[in-house]
């Protein structure tokens, strides 16, 4: 079995997702590659990673197979490698096919979250949910709802850039205290609502409110703030935001269609994908039949 599993980037809803609130997570190229073959139980995952724990819980199956995993980011982090590892294991064990219904996706999310003990910070699982589909995942875990949609704004490009930083999300969540979750949730609700309605002015307003709430809660990495100031000073830039924990790993930039940031403004960043250049590909394909 071989799966291509997409990368993921939070567009909005970080921290809100921990309480099951509304969020938008982009599943995109390049993809991680997971391959399962007959073997003797060899795999490249850390035993305390989600995939390592899942394999340990299902030794009867995985002891008879070997796993190969390819990370297009070569360990730089920020795009969901550890959740892609879990997804590959989960799909292999359960012989799952796609597309998956929402209830099947949330069942996988529940299994993923169950791998973390009460003494640990239990993640939202939104990255798992998003990486089980293609495009922009509009998620509300409290309502057990997920929809995958395409980019709704024809005259606006979304471009993702990888920073040189990597925030350990799990360690960050253990240490962080979010004082005003209400402002984050209200802003995320507005962003999700206007994204679905294709209301660009209100969508941008909601994103700005979400960024202000992140600043108010001291949830933006200082190096990211410096990059955002440079980027938003450019003409035709509508909005820019650090994505994920502290916004440290990835920066999302919204521009007028066809506008490219000057190289000197992105010299410390690696361009990953743009809705202008890269069509969405199906996130999984199964090759070679069964085992």
Detailed description of the structure:
This protein is of the alpha+beta class. It has two domains: 2-149, 2-Layer Sandwich (Ribosomal Protein S5, domain 2); 156-274, Alpha-Beta Plaits (2-Layer Sandwich). Helices cover 33% and strands 24% of the residues. It contains nine helices and nine strands. The protein has helices at residues 50-57, 59-62, 81-94, 102-114, 126-130, 169-175, 181-197, 200-216, 222-232, and strands at 2-12, 22-38, 65-70, 135-140, 145-149, 156-162, 237-243, 250-256, 270-274. The strands form two sheets. Strands 1, 2, 3, 4 and 5 form a five-stranded antiparallel β-sheet that branches. β7 and β8 (250-256) form a beta hairpin. α7 (181-197) runs antiparallel to α8. It is globular, with a radius of gyration of 19 Å. The N and C termini lie close together (7 Å).
- What is the CATH third-level topology name of the largest domain? Ribosomal Protein S5, domain 2
Number of domains: 2
Q: Any idea of the CATH class of the largest domain?
A: Alpha Beta
Relative helix content = 25-40%
Overall radius of gyration: 19 Å
Largest sheet: 5 strands, antiparallel
Q: What is the averaged pLDDT score?
A: 89
Q: What's the CATH architecture of the largest domain? A: 2-Layer Sandwich
The count of DSSP E runs of length 2 or more, i.e. the number of strands, is 9
> Proportion of β residues?
15-25%
Protein structure class: alpha+beta
Order of helices and strands: EEHHEHHHEEEHHHHEEE
List the total number of helices: 9
Low-confidence stretches: 279-291
- Separation of the first and last Cα atoms: 7 Å
Shape: globular
């Amino acid at each position: 079995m071989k799966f291509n599993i997409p990368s993921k980037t939070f567009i909005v809803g970080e921290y809100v997702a921990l309480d099951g609130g509304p969020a938008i997570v982009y599943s995109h190229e390049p993809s991680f590659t997971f391959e399962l073959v007959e073997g003797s139980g060899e795999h490249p995952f850390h035993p305390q990673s989600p995939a390592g724990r899942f394999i340990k819980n299902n030794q009867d199956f995985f002891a008879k197979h070997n796993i190969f995993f390819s990370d297009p980011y070569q360990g730089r982090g920020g795009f969901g490698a550890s959740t892609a590892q879990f997804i590959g294991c989960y799909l292999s064990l359960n012989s799952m096919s796609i597309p998956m219904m929402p209830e099947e996706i949330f069942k996988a999310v529940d299994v993923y979250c169950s791998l973390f003990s009460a003494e640990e910070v239990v993640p939202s699982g939104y990255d798992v949910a998003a990486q089980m589909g293609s495009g922009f995942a509009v998620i509300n875990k409290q309502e057990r709802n997920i929809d995958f949609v395409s980019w709704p704004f024809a005259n606006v490009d979304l471009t993702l850039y990888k920073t040189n930083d990597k925030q350990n999300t799990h360690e960050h969540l253990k240490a962080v205290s979010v004082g005003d979750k209400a402002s984050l949730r209200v802003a995320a609700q507005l962003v999700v609502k206007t994204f679905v309605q294709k209301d660009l002015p209100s969508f941008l307003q909601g994103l700005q409110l979400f960024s202000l709430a992140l600043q108010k809660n001291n949830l933006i990495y200082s190096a990211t703030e410096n990059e955002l100031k440079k980027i938003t000073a450019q003409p035709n830039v509508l909005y820019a935001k650090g994505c994920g924990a502290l916004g440290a790993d990835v920066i999302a930039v919204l521009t007028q269609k066809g506008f490219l940031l000057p190289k000197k403004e992105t010299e410390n960043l690696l361009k990953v994908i743009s809705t202008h250049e890269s069509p969405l590909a199906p996130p999984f394909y199964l090759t070679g039949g069964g085992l």
